Amino acid sequence: MLLLLVLSILINYIDRSNLSIAVALPAPKGLTLDPVRQGYLLSAFFATYALFQLFGIVAFVLDRVDVSWVYAIAFLAWSAATAVTGLVSGFAVLLALRLLLGAGESAAYPCYSKIFAVHFPEHHRGLANGLIDAGSKFGPALGMLVGGRLMAQFGWRPFFIVLGGASLFWLIPWLKWMPRGPGLVMDHAKHAPRIGLILRQRSAWGSFGGLFCGNYYWYFLLTWLPSYMVKERQFSKEHMADMSALAFLAIGVSSALCGWISDRWIASGATPTRVRKTFTVSGLVLATVILPVAMVDSKDVAMALLFLACAFFGMWSSNHWALIQTLAGPPAAGKWTAVQNGIGNLAGVAAPALTGLVVARTGVFFLAFAVATGFALLGAIFYMFVIGRIEQVNWSHAAME
Question: Residue 187 pLDDT > 60, yes or no?
């Protein structure tokens, strides 16, 4: 089951990033768009992705429908949207399909959290979440290394059609081995906590702020690292693709490894509070080593520091979801994750835009790196001081307060 979920998030991140590769190709056939329309298409994904979580649509469904079936339908929707994108023309239709892609993928992380909270004990969640995060980093790496080359050779349309169509075969083993049992659908007699009750928890706001700050750092890397390498370091496009992919791979490998280490630490008797906070706080603080990347003259030293910063960032990304799965517990894991991920992904709007403004004003990337560093430190403060003890909220007691 875990291997299927990891494979699904790998597909998820290739699907959401493949249009960025397509529009970057020289004169992609049938996809002639001015920069404004390109921007609309690229941002459309985040519109439904974030809003379906922020407005409680995903949470509403997860309280009423078996999470395994929710995920199957969501996967079907986003894979079909990818495949059909390769068959159609016209801006309006492409925009609608990107909106559908975002709606389908909005269910992913809330479903992961609910499944892990119900089926995985505390000392297994670090590795489980670390592998999911690794898949989310390997996806963009594969997209850059493989997707770009395949699109350049065969065109973007065949790539979309084959990727979306082949992905549908994932549903066959999922329908056979998907999780079943109590806890996957809320018993309404037990009254699942409402979003308002979650918003009354101080730790919820700590996790919301922490994810937004961590995501700012991630989306800064995902959207502007290639441009930095080409424009400021004068890397060739091939060298840029290789270095960017290695940076994302460093995060993924670190995330999986640190998730496993955190689980072993908890299994040996350490408290979730000590373990999860150590990894999330230390990871974001140490990830600030990215600032000298924009300061040193040597390209080799800069890349070494970048890979080190990415490895430290993996410490955070392996544990921040495990932390809230413990806090929310099975009754609220899906709903809490939906709200948190909706807020956290607003960083996907803020980071690219703010970085663009900073680079346009200053002409260099140093201040943009400094802003990302500042968000990493702010995120560490959220995890250290705003989030309290990491133990499941007593929802019955909280409702009576």
Answer: no
Give the number of residues written for the chain: 401
Question: Is 21 in contact with 141 (CB distance < 8 Å)?
Answer: no
Provide the 3-class DSSP secondary structure of residue 316: helix
Residues 70-83: tens digit of each pLDDT: 999 999 999 999 99
Are the C-beta atoms of residues 179 and 119 closer than 8 Å to each other?
Answer: yes
Give the rounded percent of residues in the chain with a pLDDT score beyond 70: 93
d(CA 39, CA 222): 16
Instruction: Indicate if the pLDDT at residue 94 is higher than 60.
Output: yes
Q: Which residue has the tokens 């992904």?
A: 345
**Of 107, 119, 120, 113, residue with least CA distance to 71:** 107
User: What would the two tokens of residue 227 be?
Assistant: 């441009």
> Is 189's pLDDT higher than 50?
no
DSSP assignment of 182-206: TTSS--GGG-PPPHHHHHT-HHHHH
Under the banding of pLDDT at 50, 70 and 90, the label for residue 184 is: low
Element (H, E) at 111: helix 108-119
Domains of the chain and any CATH numbers: 2-181+192-400 (1.20.1250.20)
226 contacts 240 by C-beta, under 8 angstroms: yes
Among candidate residues 176, 163, 174, the one with its CA nearest the CA of residue 79: 163
Phi first, then psi: give them for residue 166, nearest 5 degrees.
Answer: -65, -35
Query: Between the CA of residue 253 and those of 114, 310, 312, 316, 328, what are the distances in Å?
Result: 24, 10, 11, 13, 27
Residue 362: Cβ-neighbour burial (10 angstroms; 0-12, 13-18, 19+): exposed
In the numeric block, which tokens belong to residue 189?
């007699």
